[in-house]
Amino acid sequence: MKERPMTMILAWASLGVAAQKLKDLQLDDETANSLLLELETATNLAKAFNDTWHSIHWNTSRKSTKVRVTITLRKMAEMIFDHLEESVNLFDQLCDEQSRFPTIPLTDDWLEIRSSLRRGKEEFEKTQGKFIEPLPLLKYLQEQQNQ
After folding, report:
1. Considering the entire predicted model, what is its pTM?
2. Contacts of range 44-47, beta carbons closer than 8 Å, 24 or more positions apart
3. In this predicted model, what pLDDT tens digit does every residue of 99-128 receive, in sequence order?
4. pLDDT digits (tens, 9 = 90+) for 13-59
5. How far apart are CA 98 and CA 91, in angstroms?
């Protein structure tokens, strides 16, 4: 374990903005509510990740402490990744539903939600991407799509 996970403050902030914008829209749509739940869960997990990361002094702590915290952080990062992927899928599903049956008014807030979600995912991948592996089934499905 030469490297350790980095904080994900920007990912947390971006996901929080997306969740707040979606909450402000106050939609009565099942997919939008599921998206909000996933975003809020990812945001809360990212905050807990940052709090855990800051809970020790990385330069002076014992190796066993660093290893234990790193393992915890990696598990949290995997959970955040799962909720982030589900958020992206739900956002795409919501957009597909609205292109077929427009029931939600299209506003600039949707562009901000999309932008914040994209920014959060990019920041997560930049800071945590090398520390987590997708689940074997997801990895297999991604390989099948790339062929």
Report:
1. 0.81
2. 45/76, 45/79, 45/80, 45/83, 46/8, 46/11, 46/12, 46/15, 46/80, 46/124, 47/12
3. 888 877 778 888 899 999 999 988 888 888
4. 899 999 999 998 888 889 889 999 999 999 999 999 999 988 888 88
5. 11
